[in-house]
Amino acid sequence: xxxxxxxxxxxxxxxxxxxxxxxxxxxxxxxxxxxxxxxxxxxxxxxxxxxxxxxxxxxxxxxxxxxxxxxxxxxxxxxxxxxxxxxxxxxxxxxxxxxxxxxxxx
Length: 106
What we know:
By secondary structure, the protein is mostly loops. The protein is built from two helices and three strands. The protein has a three-stranded antiparallel sheet with strand order 2-1-3, with no helix packed on it. The longest helix has 8 residues, at 56-63.
């Protein structure tokens, strides 16, 4: 992930956004985590098979071409088991957060 720090643990029933906030990361979510925008999206690098199926909100954005099939909304996505590696898209990076330079080797 291109966020600084240790890996983020996701508890059962928790969304990725909730886990990121619990770990102290500031993450964009303009609609207040309601699945009504795509500002909280995460580009999934590996481990997508461990994610719960896309929610109805994610499916709508996929169908409209506003969310890539390799991206998920952190306010919607849950990780019941396994590991996930993702990247904050450049378009939704916050100006006050220092992101790790992406070497492409994740």
